[in-house]
Write a structure and sequence with these properties.
Blueprint (H helix, E strand, L loop, with lengths): L2 H10 L8 E8 L3 E7 L5 E6 L7 H16 L18 E4 L5 E8 L13 H20 L13 H5 L16 H21 L6 E4 L8 E4 L2 E4 L6 E4 L2 H6 L9 H13 L6 H5 L1 H19 L4 H22 L6
Antiparallel strand pairs: 1-2, 2-3, 3-5, 4-5, 6-9, 7-8
């Protein structure tokens, strides 16, 4: 049993599960996720162990708070957090190093995640619709005074203390890559300053609304993984939707579908649409830093490797010469 396996088992003692309960690791990324199956009762759940030095307990409770509001207001259907016997939604357990790990247990939702194969136009139209609904809700919702979520902007994503790792320390960054991506960084920063962060274009959003974070169960669509929710540019949600596949030749079609879904519920200006390629490059640079800082333990980052930086350089050339998404 690993240290985090032990954390998961210890956390479950706070809930009413039978002794015949299995805990299975399902994903290692920013957080570590387990599937919990109680063979005695037939109940299942998703247990999330938060990574160290990322979100505070107050920030995690704020995430759950917005999820509650979205569900109660009928905007989207995120999973419900399960409470302990004492009514708590966050359990804190020390790992084998004595470090406090925050744990949340969610109901296990049925459904499947759409794949990146086949015709994705309908799926991206759905993503756009969901994004618009959540943006409208977030712009009007009055959070409690204790609400505490981060802001994703140039400084927090690409600055000296980038939350997801600095792209300059990404894999495969040599002299030529650094020079090209520095040009990209400068141009992206300049255009984002020009675009601004007014209330009509910057606010509370999911910030990781991609196909991997949808569960489709017949006519029901659940949005999951609000771990990155916070304040950012609304159009950043499209950039997030094409994470890791920004070089796919179908991106223009997906963007058209996403915008079709979005504008059916929330208006956009020409400037809003024109900033999308810049936000895609902003996200891509962020992900270069993420791969570099997470590849030793996150499977997805490890698989991307140095090739992710190489493709990023190709995208940077296309963007800087004005041909990306043209």
């Amino acid at each position: 049993m690993t240290s985090l396996d032990a954390v998961a088992v210890s956390a479950l003692k706070n809930y009413d599960f039978s002794p015949n309960t299995a805990v299975t690791l399902t994903n290692v990324s920013e957080n570590v996720t387990y599937r919990v199956d109680d063979r005695g009762t037939g109940r299942s759940a998703a247990l999330r162990i938060h990574r160290l030095n990322y979100h505070s307990k107050a920030a995690i409770e704020s995430e759950l708070c917005w999820m509650d509001a979205l569900r109660e207001d009928g905007v989207v259907a995120p999973p419900r957090p399960m409470t302990t016997r004492d009514g708590a939604r966050i359990v804190t357990v020390d790992d084998d190093r004595g470090l406090a790990r925050h744990v949340v247990l969610f109901e296990w939702l049925p459904g499947h995640t759409p794949t990146v194969e086949g015709d994705l136009v309908p799926s991206f139209r759905v993503l756009g619709t969901l994004a618009a609904k959540m943006h409208s809700h977030g712009s009007m919702w009055q959070p409690p005074a204790s609400f505490d979520r981060y802001t994703c902007n140039y400084n927090t994503a690409l600055g000296l203390k980038a939350m997801w790792g600095r792209w300059q320390e990404g894999l495969g960054i040599g002299r030529s890559e650094r020079k090209l991506l520095s040009r990209l960084d400068t141009e992206v920063g300049k255009r984002l300053v020009g675009y601004g962060a007014g209330r009509d274009r910057f606010g509370l959003a999911h910030n990781d609304l991609r196909l991997a974070n949808l569960l489709v169960d017949g006519d029901h669509i659940h949005v999951i993984d609000f771990d990155d929710c916070g304040y950012s540019w609304y159009m950043y949600d499209f950039a997030a939707s094409v994470s890791f596949i920004e070089d796919d030749t179908r991106v223009p079609d997906w963007m058209s579908a996403w915008l079709d879904g979005y504008t059916s519920h929330r208006p956009l200006s020409k400037v809003d649409i024109e900033i999308i390629p810049t936000l895609i490059m902003f996200r891509r640079l962020l992900l270069v830093g993420w791969v570099g800082s997470r590849h030793e333990y996150a499977d997805e980052a490890a698989k991307l490797g140095t090739g992710f930086t190489s493709v990023t350089c190709d995208l940077a050339e296309a963007y800087l010469t004005g041909v990306y998404l043209m």
